[in-house]
């Protein structure tokens, strides 16, 4: 009986499933491993600046990541899933050989997972998106050559990988300068921060709500929501969140700041000790942080010549920022960290389960899938593997992005996370599978360069950049090797 037919009766379906049951079992394991390693590597990138700036404890990041990563995958992951499943390879070329497509998904997951395991073991923040796309191309080149790929879509995806960290870095740098001018340079920066926060919450919550509900996922019934209803609902949600901050959260934060001034605050050193203790299996440090330095606002004469104007716009690297203001941003950074995790879940969890979803469809129907919604339970399965990986190994990569690349304080972390999250959410809504890793690192380097007072670890950035460049071809090579073996022994 030919298992490569496009349709099958009940008997042939049972025969096909019996023949490929082993592949289904292997695929479930590989998908979980891929999600696990992605959680250890890339979820760490999403929460690295929050943890290493002192905004949240590592254990709190574990809990928050579990919630927001899963929510992002469910609410916004559908577009990226559609791209990965139907817009990279030409599925029509497998209409008469669905068994080849099924085994190809095993090769994709094997190649991507193997590279991610290798990179995570060396604490390199690489991209599951690069790994996945490389795996797809490796499988396709073995089976159909370049004719099996939608090359224009592949080229667009690769271009987005170059543009996205630059765009994320620009957004974060602009946010840093704007908030620096509007808040940190004021005579009373704490008061200025409280004035700006309702505007911030209004803008961000409106943006997130609009991205979720405007022509959103069929899973939650938002697929028919048009522009104006989505805009009105988003503005209403943003307005309510701004009012909640002004009349509820503001009072809590004022009280918290007052109490925090008399006790030890979160510090980079404490979180560094916690991360090292997590790596060694020990406890956390109880040594108090050094006392905050006084705030100074140095007034300079305005020079409208280009060099003088640029110097006026950019932050003064010698200025000491108000410790209470930084403490306030550490509280706000909990929100931006969740926003980053949400955006990451919308993009990278689909990476880990897209091959499994395709394989499962072929296994159950013995024909090539058409564009459709992926079953919700598969997304939950990917979320489970992702969160388990972050809980168990996330501390390894957090140190690379959040501490070793450049020093991160709560204000820097706030701008880094916000810029990266905005970039990734827009890309996820469009359906472009960009890399959160590239966006986070691009924002960290950009803010570090604009900040000026703390050097960027350029040798480490070089190593991270090399890891990015080799991820795409190496995962493709691993996938091609796996597909060659599968083709030799099972086709």
TrEMBL record:
Main localization, broad class: membrane
Keywords from the named record: Membrane, Phosphate transport, Transmembrane, Transmembrane helix, Transport
Superkingdom of origin: Eukaryota
Compartments in which it is found: Membrane
Biological process terms in GO annotation: phosphate ion transmembrane transport
GO function terms (MF aspect): phosphate transmembrane transporter activity
Role: Sodium-phosphate symporter.
Family label: Belongs to the inorganic phosphate transporter (PiT) (TC 2.A.20) family.
Stated name of the protein: Phosphate transporter
